Amino acid sequence: MDLKSSKHLVEAQNRASIFLDENGLDGTLARQYWLMLFDWTLTEYVQQLQKPVAIDLLEQYEVALKRLVKHEPIQYIVGYADFMNERFKVTPDTLIPREDTAGLIELAMNFLQNNPTSRVLDIGTGTGIIPIKLAKTFPAADISACDLSEAALKVAIENAESHNVEIYFVKSDLFNQLDSEAPFDVIISNPPYISENELSLMDESVKKFEPTLALFAEDEGLAIYQRIALEAHNYLNPNGLILLEIGFQQGEAVKAIFQSEYPDAEILIEKDLNSLDRYVKIQL
pLDDT tens, 190-201? Predict the structure, then answer.
C-alpha cells in the first residue's frame, strides 16, 4: 500500500478500502477512520475528496491503517472515544467505553432524579465515564470513584478535568481505601466479568490490546460481584442502591449472589437495548 502517491483524497480512500478488505477488515470503514484520525467533520471530508492531500496526512493515515490490520482499536490509535455524545480520553490502560454502559448510567440517573444530593461511588472507574456523566447531570451529588489501576485513575482524572467536574478519585481495591463511616447512597460498578474460558470468543482487538485487569475475573467471571456483595454492607446506607453491569448470561447468578447477602432486598435484572440481560439492580 502506497497512499503517498495518491493524487486526491478519493484515490487514497479507495486504496485504503482495498487494503482493509484484503486484510480481513471492513473496507467501508476507511472513511470513518480518516474522520476519527484527523477529527474532520463529514462536510470537511466531502469538500476535500477531489483535492490533493498533504503528504504528512497520508503518511499518518497509512501508519494508522497498518496498526488497524494488526487489530489495534482505532480509539487507542487516536487517543479518544466518543460516548453518549461526549469525548473521553482513552489509553491502553483503560477499557474502551461501550454503549451498554450508557444503560447503567441511565439507571443511576433515574435514582438521582429524585435524590440529587446523594453520595455515589463508582467501583472500577476506568476512564471515569460513569462518575463524569453523573456529575455533569447532577452537580449537587457527592461522587467518588475508585480503581485498582493507578494508570487508569490518571486518565479518569484528566477526563474529569477536561469536563470540568469535581470527583473524588482514590486508588482502592474495591472498598479497602474508603471510609465506612461515610457510607454511600448508590454504589455503581461495571467490573471485570469475563471468565478465562471465554477468551476464545473475544475479538482479537480486545484480547491483544485492552487491559486484562479490567476484563477478567475468577469464578466464571463472578468473583468481583461476590466481593462487592460481601463488602458493601459497611459502605451502603440503609435503603441504598447497588447498580451493576453484567455479562448477558450472568443475570441469575449475580442475582443469587446478592439475594444471599441481602435477603430483604428487591433485586431486578434489567435488559439492554438488544433485550439481553445486562444490569442488576439491588434496592435495599
Answer: 998 877 666 666
Please check whether residue 49 is in contact with residue 7, taking contact to mean a CB–CB distance below 8 angstroms. no
75 by Cβ neighbours in 10 Å (0-12 / 13-18 / 19+) ranks as buried
Do residues 281 and 107 make contact, with C-beta atoms less than 8 angstroms apart? yes
Q: How far apart are CA 270 and CA 282, in angstroms?
A: 11
**Cβ(186)–Cβ(111) under 8 Å?**
yes
Full 3-state SS string of 219-238: HHHCHHHHHHHHHHHHHEEE
Question: In the beta sheet, which residues pair with residue 236?
Answer: 184
pLDDT in tens, 25-41: 999 999 999 999 999 99
Task: Quote the pTM value.
Answer: 0.92
* 209 within 8 A of 77, measured Cβ to Cβ: no
CATH of domain 92-283: 3.40.50.150
Summarised one tens digit per residue, pLDDT across range 265-279 is 999 999 999 999 999
Parse the chain into domains and list their residue ranges.
3-70, 92-283
